[in-house]
Structure formats: C-alpha cells, structure tokens
Amino acid sequence: ASATIFVVMAILGTVTKKDLSRWGSYASAALIGLIVAMLINMFLKSSAANYIFSFIAVIIFTILTAWDAQRMKQIYENYSGQVSVDGLAVAGALALYLDFVNLFLQFLQIFGFSDRN
Q1: 30-59: per-residue pLDDT in tens?
Q2: Between 95 and which of 36, 47, 68, 109 could a Cys-Cys bridge form, CB atoms 3.0 to 4.6 Å apart?
Q3: Burial of residue 38, with CB atoms counted within 10 A of its CB: 0-12 exposed, 13-18 middle, 19 or more buried
Q4: Which of 79, 77, 81, 59 is nearest to 9 (CA)?
Q5: DSSP state, 116?
C-alpha cells in the first residue's frame, strides 16, 4: 500500500501542471499540528486517537509526496545549470525517502503490525 501510494503520488506530482505549493504548505502546517497532537497523546495514551492520527498522517504524507516531487522537478528545471545536480538529487531523494518511510510507518500502525501497543 505504501509503495503504491508513493509511486502514484510521485508521478502525479511530477506530471501535473497544477501548482501544488498551496497544498504543500497546508500539509506542512497540518504535520506540525499532528506532531503536537501526537506528543499530547503520548501522555494520554489513547489508542483510538493514535489510530485516527495514523489515518491523518497518511493523508498528510500523501500530499507531501506529490508536493515534494513537483518541487524537486521545478528546482531541477530552474537551477540545473547553475548548481550541482548531485546536490539536488540528494536533497530530493532525502525528502521523498522521508515521505515514504513515514507513509510506511503509518500503514504499519493502521494495519496493526507495529509493536508500540
């Protein structure tokens, strides 16, 4: 499930003509709010809230995957002749890797394969 969503959203972010920067900023703000809510839930220890937060995190990281893919494409098109392409590749790979890992971890949480509970 993680790989499918990641690949589809990365392709969508790369080929779409629509500007996803607004969605990316909303998702980034939602991610900060989710982190705060998860920190509060560490003390409350509500498994229902943890389950809901996992679904919200999947939505957030799905949006961030498309946004990061589009952003990396735009950066490459704008600055490929002026800066090292290797540095762009590393930065893009790191951002997309973090999106994928977080998607995977949240799916583990949803499907119950995590040993946190």
Answers
A1: 999 999 999 999 998 888 888 899 999 999
A2: 68
A3: middle
A4: 59
A5: -
